[in-house]
Amino acid sequence: MSRRRIRNILLKEWALLFTDLNSAFVITLLPFLVVGQGILYIWLASRFAGESMLTTQVFQTALQKLVEAIPGITQLPGNEQLLVLLLSQFNFFLLLIPTMIAMSVATFSIVDEKLSGSLEALLATPVRTWELLLGKALAGAIPALVMTWISAGIFLLVVSGLGWGELIGFVVTTGWFLTLFLLTPAVAMLSFMLGVTGSARAKDPRGAQNAALLIILPVFALIGIQITGIVWFTPSLILVLALAIGIADFITLRAAVRLFGRESIVVQWR
Amino acid sequence: MAIIETFDLSRRFGKTTAVEDVTLAVEAGEVLGFLGPNGAGKTTTIRILAGMIAPTKGYAIVAGHRTDRDVEQLHETVGMLTQTPGLYDRLSARRNLEYFASFYPSIESQSQVEKYIKLMGLWERRDSKVGAFSKGMKQRLALARALVHEPKVLFLDEPTAGLDPEAAGEVRELIRTLREEGRTIFLSTHNLNEAEMLCSRIAVIHTRLLALDTAERLRRRFFRRRIIVQLESLDARVREAVRKLPFVQEMGEEGSQLILELSDSERNRPELVKAIVEAGGRVIGVSEKQYPLEDVYLRLIREESQNES
């Protein structure tokens, strides 16, 4: 029964999501903007700053870690080493896509229903809180995940188009795949769980969105940690991270069910 | 047999008491009108009975389930029409109903959805988006949603509020149909005529339960039964003849009407008419003076307010 209910929540959410122009716009266009912007920054950095960037302490440390992870990179000229270093951040940069979509979509998923009065009617049915939250989180996380994978494909195409095709072998590593197919789903789910929970706890739509802003910060932290050379995320480290976030997903779902407060949702603001 | 029972049901929100010590019982198949001014605790009571919120004191049993404990089972056996229709405007009528029906394990949702869309007269518009519906159509669809799982008890929270007279009439007609089917309905309303028209008993609440009885008995609690005798003309002989009758307790006049309080309004009537005719009076009609339910309601609320102050 739970699977049927979750599936129905998911299908209903999709029916609403893709008939709402704003949400459809965010889901379909945001990935292109993120990829476009990322590539633009890398192109600008390599075109105008070039090898000189590698002389800074921060990048030297990062490059050292990169060499430890991919020894073959030492064969490349300095400018291409810089490119590999920057392009290697892109798998983390792609994590912005599910988190930003979550911020835009999940934060309103409960708030909108509360405002329209449909949530009260829904809570009068035998639906369980975890079914409702999971259904709503999956409804956002799945399209966000698909768009992230599409974006990864677009990224590789653009990289080839810019004449950096021979560097792809250094960028698309085991770590890249682990990030894309293990870490990204875990992060997407976490973002949407937090977004939906924030939405359920918020007293008004503005509060929901403010709470969701916090989701995006850890993703920037990941990029920052790697590009400054503090930690280089090797495949095993990514695997551990994905596992930790997977556990966090489960804990968040359980916490969300406790925090949901069906009663306050029915009684408080409308 | 009571299908809804409450025992000292109370609910506080912070320092405010919304509902206090409400004890009542509703029989299966009964339509109970739940009246009270704004903020009297009607919606809070309904929410407690429908398992949406818990009481802070006392408890309620609905269809055999404690409303604060067996919430999931309770939700399978009760239906609720909330104050706002709460539908998804961008989905069709059918899709809306299918969605809500999908949460009930015991029903064949497709046939139930079709049944209620037809019953609510929305079959022709089943694939139209709800956003394009009138208020009345939305309310009928919301009623279908409350009924789609064949609940034993139906809670209706101001079902005709904000509807135009025609749409309100349609909704009332549907409630009447449900009453004839023998469903138990707990109807919260501001509309006293609606309550009298549809309900077998009426409860008046103002945080506490002020009264619970049939409309007729509530009237008698505050107003004595009076008989109106409409005459062609009222003269001294008729007045005198009526005054002499031993069962006439009180006599008043209004134009060519005699307004009388009798010892036994039913049994004394033939004798009364006979005496008037023998005194030369020409009787056009005999009826009972009707006191609007509104008068009863206002007296109850006024008395409660005086007690409070």
What this model shows, in words?
- The complex is a heterodimer of chains A (270) and B (309).
- Chain A contains 13 helices and no strands.
- Chain A has helices at 2-17, 21-49, 57-69, 78-87, 90-93, 96-116, 118-123, 129-164, 168-171, 174-201, 205-227, 235-259, 262-267.
- The two termini of chain A are 30 Å apart.
- The mean pLDDT of chain A is 84.
- With 309 residues, chain B is an alpha/beta fold.
- Chain B has two domains: 2-220, Rossmann fold (3-Layer(aba) Sandwich), CATH 3.40.50; 224-288, Alpha-Beta Plaits (2-Layer Sandwich), CATH 3.30.70.100.
- Helix content of chain B is 37%, strand content 28%.
- Chain B is built from eleven helices and 14 strands.
- Chain B is elongated and about 75 Å long.
- The A-B interface holds A 1, 4-5, 8, 12, 15-16, 19-20, 116-128, 262-263, 266-267, 270 and B 13, 47, 50-54, 72-73, 75-76, 78-80, 82-91, 95, 99-100, 102-105, 142, 145.
Record the SSE blueprint.
The complex is a heterodimer of chains A (270) and B (309).
Chain A: H1 2-17, H2 21-49, H3 57-69, H4 78-87, H5 90-93, H6 96-116, H7 118-123, H8 129-164, H9 168-171, H10 174-201, H11 205-227, H12 235-259, H13 262-267
Chain B: E1 2-13, E2 16-27, E3 31-35, H1 42-49, E4 57-62, E5 65-66, H2 71-77, E6 78-81, H3 93-101, H4 109-119, H5 135-147, E7 153-157, H6 165-180, E8 184-189, H7 192-198, E9 201-206, E10 208-213, H8 215-222, E11 227-231, H9 236-244, E12 248-254, E13 257-262, H10 269-278, E14 283-288, H11 293-308
Parallel strand pairs in B: 3-8, 3-9, 6-7, 7-8
Antiparallel strand pairs in B: 1-2, 1-4, 4-5, 9-10, 11-13, 11-14, 12-13
Helix pairs in contact in B: 3-4, 4-5, 5-6, 8-11, 9-10
